[in-house]
Amino acid sequence: MAVDVWHEYVARELGPVLAVLVARAGKPREEPVPGALEWTLPWGMDDGNGLVRVTVFTEIVPESFERRVRVVVAAAAKGFLEDGGKLALPRYADWGAEYARSRSEIDADSTRQVPPPDGPLTRGMAEHLCRALGGLPDTLSEEPGGEVGFSVAPPEPA
After folding, report:
1. What's the whole-number mean pLDDT along residues 63-81?
2. Is the pLDDT of residue 45 over 80?
3. According to the UniProt record, where is the region Disordered (predicted)?
4. Under a CB-based contact definition with an 8 Å cutoff, are residues 56 and 18 in contact?
5. What is the DSSP pairing of strand 148-152 with strand 67-79?
6. Cys-Cys link to 75, which of 101, 121, 131, 158 (CB 3.0-4.6 A)?
7. Which region, left, alpha or beta, applies to residue 35 given φ > 0 means left and ψ of -120 to 50 means alpha?
8. Mean pLDDT over residues 81-92, rounded?
9. pLDDT, tens digit, for every residue of 97-145?
10. Would you say 140 and 129 are in contact if contact means Cβ atoms under 8 Å apart?
């Protein structure tokens, strides 16, 4: 029950932002998402904490050159008795960004390794957001880091 409320909360918060970006994807002269939009939403519970990180970026479908908005979701929850309820999620960086330093250098510099997202929680959140926000169900896929993503296409021009 509490997970359903969390799903609805994230969909309600992400919906207006995604609507603007998807509308821009249908306009040929506008970049839907310049770079990537990363959004981290905490969720307090009576016995712990929840965290969801959503990364949104422009996706080009190679076969049709159609521009879509790609949404990649990572989620985790931890009880207060587990490490004080402290949570961290990995950052999704496979959206085409070019970094000044390679990813391996950044990982080598990290003093604390971030655990992968919770698989079932992440998949459930991504599936709900895909349904609630008009995503394309056949684009739901797991990313190498354990995140789950889906695409949203702009409406057909009238």
Report:
1. 89
2. no
3. 102-158
4. yes
5. antiparallel
6. 121
7. left
8. 79
9. 554 444 555 555 444 577 889 999 999 999 999 999 999 999 999 998 8
10. no
Cα 103 from chain centroid (whole Å)? 19
Domain ranges of the chain: 2-152
Assigned token pair, 114: 């971030």
Q: Return d(Cα 96, Cα 72) in angstroms, integer.
A: 13
- The first and second tokens of residue 136, run together, are 């394309």
CA 74 – CA 52 distance, rounded (Å): 6
In the numeric block, which tokens belong to residue 3? 């997970």
Does residue 67 have a pLDDT over 70? yes
Give me 153's structure tokens. Answer: 């296409």
CA atoms within 13 A on the CB side of 33: 25
Question: pTM for the whole thing?
Answer: 0.84
* HSE toward the beta carbon, residue 43, CA cutoff 13 A: 20
